[in-house]
Amino acid sequence: QVQLVESGGGLVQPGGSLRLSCAASGSIFSINDMGWYRQAPGKQRELVASITSGGNTNYADSVKGRFTISKDNAKNTVYLQMSSLKPEDTAVYYCNARIRNLIIRTYWGQGTQVTVSS
After folding, report:
1. What share of the chain has pLDDT > 90, as a percent?
2. How many helices (H) and strands (E) would you count in the chain?
3. Do residues 108 and 45 make contact, with C-beta atoms less than 8 angstroms apart?
4. Cα–Cα distance between 86 and 117 in angstroms, integer?
5. Which one-letter DSSP state was computed for residue 44?
6. Which long-range contacts (CB under 8 A, 24 or more apart) does 47-51 make?
7. How far apart are CA 45 and CA 56, in angstroms?
């Protein structure tokens, strides 16, 4: 069984920073990709950033230049450093990972709330 556990959400003022973490644990042979999605009230879940096993990154246009995704392979952990936060970044942020055991399966974390407000 695989679990993704997120941490680091909270309330921050506009212009502030937060760092999200997501640790994968359990039966893991290898991790193909990890990423962060977010879902604001009344909106669809959207990709924020992703990182491949080789370290290639991809960002939503709305966060380019403000957010940075990184990973620690030894800890099976992915991070999202968020800077210059805006009220429109307010959402529940979900960690996502494609993990290989006998087959490749996609797993989701439980979500962590990020609120940007003065």
Report:
1. 95
2. 0, 11
3. no
4. 8
5. -
6. 48/80, 48/93, 49/80, 50/96, 51/78
7. 22
